[in-house]
Design goal:
Its main location: nucleus. This is tRNA (adenine(58)-N(1))-methyltransferase catalytic subunit TRM61. It is a single chain. The protein is α/β, with parallel strands linked by helices. The protein folds into two domains: 63 residues, Vcp-like ATPase, Chain A, domain 2; 174 residues, Vaccinia Virus protein VP39 (Rossmann fold). It contains nine helices and 15 strands. The strands form four sheets. It has a seven-stranded mixed beta sheet with strand order 9-8-7-10-11-15-12, with helices on both faces. α2 packs parallel to α3. The radius of gyration is 27 Å and the shape is globular. The structure holds S-adenosylmethionine (SAM). S-adenosylmethionine binds next to α3, β8 and α5.
Length: 334
């Protein structure tokens, strides 16, 4: 799994935070240069810096942050080879299936390896993730990635699990199963040979269509799985802040100000900002409701009310999460 480190060294994977939606994974190599729209960043300047540092570009025109990779950050920066599972879903699945340090997990298919990274960190060095991918190119890319990220607790197998099942040379004894496949109902009957026989096993099937869910439910029931439940995660941001109370008079005053400023032209704006003795930018005296002045939220010279509202939905891949449990039969051979 990603190792925790304090300082950046030659060969380390660093996630360059270029902007809110722009994280770029780089392997630090002396002599290489990261080129961005904010300037060029020589890798040599990164070596020896603590993870989390801000570095400025060669010509001091911009800056980026150098972040330590985590499964969450990897999910938003990885090269997409398929649809992926995002953190709002993976975190819910991990806690709901009670995946913990030492757990043994089956995952199919591997896809872009987004969820594999989260599983790998959660199960830790004493656990194991058995991941399967039937697309050769994706399998090879995932293999290379897992090796370079040191996901040593992941066993990756190139296999069509729907036709060939999950058996490998090692004893699997999986306690949790995660299926992100177009036809999970074809893989479910193969599970009985590779799951733990002495404890309750959990499964989650991740499917975008309700028809897939229905077929998976039938397969689960036929194979003896119980406590079948379906969930959908619709993560949203919840915003709680102060909003300025604006009266009709304020709106009229704002319109007047717009007119006034149109008349005066935008000359004031072209001038360099006025500064006080400490170098802080001074208010030019624009209308507070116009664009000319920034008002800190809660500024006591204005009236405020508390508001709360939902933000846009977070980036996630909308799918139905189908959960079930297989309880061991008492007296059955273990
Ligand atoms: N969960 C992954 C992630 O977070 O990156 C994404 C999985 S992607 C949506 C589904 C993957 O399953 C694809 O890469 C596909 O090639 C693979 N797949 C589909 N059918 C399969 C099968 N029968 N056996 C193994 N892999 C399969």
């Amino acid at each position: 799994m990603f190792q925790h480190k304090k300082t950046i060294a030659e060969g380390d994977l660093v996630l360059a935070y270029i902007g809110r939606d722009n994280l770029k994974p780089i392997f630090v190599k002396s002599g290489d240069v990261l080129q961005t729209k904010y300037g060029n960043f020589p890798h040599t300047d990164m070596i020896g810096k603590p993870f989390g540092s801000q570095v400025t570009s060669a010509k001091n025109v911009g800056f980026i942050y150098l972040l330590l990779p985590t499964p969450e950050l990897w999910t938003v920066s990885l090269p997409h080879r398929t649809q992926i599972v995002y953190t709002p879903d993976s975190s819910y699945i991990v806690q709901r299936m009670n995946v913990v340090g030492g757990s043994r997990v089956i995952e199919a298919g591997t896809g872009s390896g987004s969820f594999t990274h989260a599983f790998s960190r959660t199960v830790g060095p004493s656990g194991r993730v058995f991941s399967y991918e039937f697309h050769e190119q994706r399998y090879l890319q995932a293999k290379e990635e897992f090796e370079s990220h040191k996901l040593e607790n992941v066993t990756l197998t190139h296999r069509d699990v729907c036709n060939e099942g999950f058996d490998i040379d090692t004893e699997i004894r999986a306690q949790m199963v995660f299926l992100d496949l177009p036809s999970p109902w074809e893989a479910i009957p193969h599970l009985s040979r590779v799951i733990a026989k002495d404890q309750t096993v959990g499964i989650c099937c991740f499917s975008p269509c309700i028809e897939q869910v229905v077929k998976a439910v039938e397969a689960l029931q036929e194979c003896g799985w119980t406590a079948i439940e379906m969930t959908e995660v619709q993560a949203k941001k919840w915003e709680a802040r102060k909003e300025m109370v604006r009266e009709l008079d304020d709106a009229i005053e704002r319109l007047r100000d717009v007119k006034r400023r149109q008349k005066e032209g935008a000359e004031l704006k072209k001038l360099p900002p006025k500064r006080d003795a400490d170098g802080n930018e001074k208010d030019r005296g624009y209308n507070p409701f116009g664009k000319g002045r920034r008002i800190a939220e809660g500024d006591e010279s204005f009236q405020w009310q508390n508001v709360s509202k939902t933000g846009p939905e977070l980036k996630t891949h909308t799918s139905y999460l189908l959960f079930a449990r297989l309880v061991p039969v008492l007296g059955a051979e273990v």
